[in-house]
Amino acid sequence: MMQKRRPTKPIKLGTLQIGGGAPIIVQSMTKTDTRDVPSTISQIKRLEKAGCEAVRVAILDKEAAKAIKSIKKEIRIPLIADIHFDWRLAIEAVKNGADGLRINPGNIGDRLRMKKVVSAAKDMGIPIRIGVNAGSLEKDLLKKYGHPTAEALVESARRHVRILEDMDFTSIKVSLKASDVVKTVDAYRLFSKEFDYPLHIGISEAGPSFSGTIKSAVGLGILLSEGIGDTIRVSLTTDPAEEVRVAYEILKSLHLRECGPEIISCPTCGRCEIDLRSLIDKVETELIDIKTPVKVAVMGCVVNGPGEAREADIGIAGGRGVGILFKQGQVVKKVKEPELLSTLIREIKRL
């Protein structure tokens, strides 16, 4: 059973509201060298087209931090600077227009350095994400717990939330990520019982497209169904636009966001007399840029297809050399097999 969204404090990321009952935001991260400004801009624009609503970029050095100014001029979505090891890069990123910071508490430095970062964020009115990661926990926590357990992740987040709160800074978002699904889910559950800061959820280093999608869908699906999560990123070793598409599919499956087509297709069986696998691949490609919510069915049996997909807005079902176009389970007309794809796409675009 789906649980209600967990109440969280609202924060601002550029023009977006995060938490406080706002829609769950889909985020991704560029895979270009941020210092390569044209390539980074090009990738962000492709992410925007895919529906990405906030983007994170890696800040490796001062040159990368300065590149933010040029990148920001060409993009529409908020940009988050991802900082590791050098607190001075966070300040430089803020100076150059970053809309938010992601700080890894395991490697950013001591309280004095954090105070300088917080002061810069306060001056510009931007939020900080405390990004706890199982792969870079503080040494004392690893010694205490023996492994990067869910409890260790939460303790790391807790201590850094308290540091920021002591500095009178509460524009905070938190993530507690591991590549292990169960550990990640447990960490978010524990943290949500104690704090009401908005949460960025994800499974870190989830893996290549197939297995990473499965892990992300399982882990994030559990959390979202329990009302946990205010922003979402699917971490895959593939084109970042694919991360965005997977994120929306997860959200759509739980009726948390309605964006773009939902495709229903039968697995095929001995009754199937058309090349349904090829057809469904072509349908997916043709609909990839459509953002209007629509439920589309592509079925391989003219006998049971319309009935099985009765709740679809529109669909096709193929037989030997011929198929039918149907809407809401009702047959509209017969179509020759070579014309099934073009007929379906044309009708969808008319909706």
| Radius of gyration using CA atoms only | 23 Å
Secondary structure tally: strands: 15
Low-confidence stretches: none
Please give the alpha-carbon distance between the first and last residues: 32 Å
Order of helices and strands: EEEHEHEHEHEHHEHEHEHEHEHEEEH
The helix tally amounts to 12
Quaternary state reads single chain
The biggest beta sheet is recorded as: 8 strands, parallel
Beta-strand fraction estimate:
15-25%
- Pairing-aware structural class of the strands and helices? alpha/beta
**Biggest β-sheet: strands ordered side by side in the sheet:** 8-7-6-5-4-3-10-9
What best-fitting shape do the alpha-carbon axes yield? Answer: elongated
Calculate the mean pLDDT score and round it: 91
- Assign a percent range to the helix content: 40-55%
Written account of the structure:
This protein has helices at 37-50, 62-72, 87-95, 111-124, 139-145, 150-166, 181-194, 209-225, 240-253, 276-286, 305-308, 340-350; strands at residues 11-13, 16-18, 25-29, 54-58, 79-83, 100-103, 128-133, 172-177, 200-201, 231-232, 261-265, 294-299, 314-318, 322-327, 330-336. By secondary structure, it is of the alpha/beta class. Helix 5 (139-145) packs antiparallel against helix 6 (150-166) and helix 8 (209-225) runs parallel beside helix 9. The protein starts with 10 loop residues before the first strand and ends with a helix. The mean pLDDT is 91.
